[in-house]
Amino acid sequence: MPQTSKRSTTMPETSQTPTPRKHYHDIDGARSVLMFLSVALHAGTVYAPARPWITGNTARADFFDWLIFGFHLFVTPTFFFVGGFFAVLLLTRRKAGDFIANRLLRTAVPLVAIALTFNMIEHYLRWVDSGGAGTFLSWIGSPAFVEIWANGTWQLHLWFLVSLLPMFLLAVAVHSILPKQSRIRGLAVELSDKLGGWISGSAAFAVALLVFAFANTANYSAAALVPGSYDLIFPGFQSWYKLVSEFPFFVIGVMAALSPRLLNALFEWRWWMPYAAAAALLFQPYPDAAQSFEVGITMLFLNQLAIWTIVLFILQFFHRFFSAGGPRTQWLADCALSMYLFHHCFVYIYGRMLTGVEWPIAAEFTVLTIFAAGTVIFIHEGIVRRFTIVRLLFNGKTDLDAVKKQPGLIAAFRGDAARANISAQSSAARPNGSLSPR
Question: How far is Cα 29 from Cα 331, in angstroms, rounded to an integer?
């Protein structure tokens, strides 16, 4: 069992003297792997009976309903936890204006770039598949095109980034308004630290899971009571209900960054967590509109309990086994955003191509997942890592000279000796590493 209490999690302080950055390889590794896992999630929708509108494929199996609903339990909630955690780290290192510029560059620019290109290609193909007739240019001028921008469906899988941007703005607003020595700041750190002390034991952590689930249930219930909460806040955006649904994960991520003690308590390995997470994934409790209020609210609570259990197990797992980092983790972290941004369109394109193929459904799903992920890796390796404007638009980075010195796919995954040599060369070429938020 790793001694998590000995892990250095002290946050760097803002000062004129540069301080060494703590690289959270485990947290960034979890985010990266889950972004890759999103390919399988969305490939599963092609064959899930609950998603009949995804392509025209008639090959369906109940297993894929279980698969995609299982993935939905933990993929995006983990992203929001990581988003809150790294937001605090960035705010300790940057001024408010620099933080906003950084988040716009790293989040808003890729969001807009993909929305205007690959998302529009996918929407056009969906329009054609649903009976639309005309060229891509004629579709752009049609009422159908206007409608997808007005009702917010232009986002597709990018809704996560759309929700994250207001949270970043809220974080920087609070950071800017509150004086550095304010009592509220001190109370936030003190509360986070006390929470870390309270949940450090195994039994106390189990109680904490129940409390977190109750907080999420209360958050959902309160959001549902807001008049018009299911309507778009303004055309093309999101509803209030959807916008705040993942906010508790962002908040706990913020608190974990404020308190190393809380971070250690959340990441402490507990022998029973793998079994709890497996049970949550197996049973997948979800509320249903047909249920009574009492049953529905109970299922919502169990749903949120399952989510917190799986999310924290994943973070504990990566802390236990992937804290060391290395070229593989470095490559995954660099490719992760490309995978998240590009894969959705290719899943639709290849899923569309496979509608006329009479293969076993497992074979189709495997081919679809591999081809979609492989295409994105090819784009990342051959274009995103090689051209400044492409890297800026689709990864929000301008570090082309530095990334060329990092290992590519083949170099990152070859033998241990070579990887160790590559890692040393990369660290020497780029002292700040690649896993810190930038």
Answer: 10
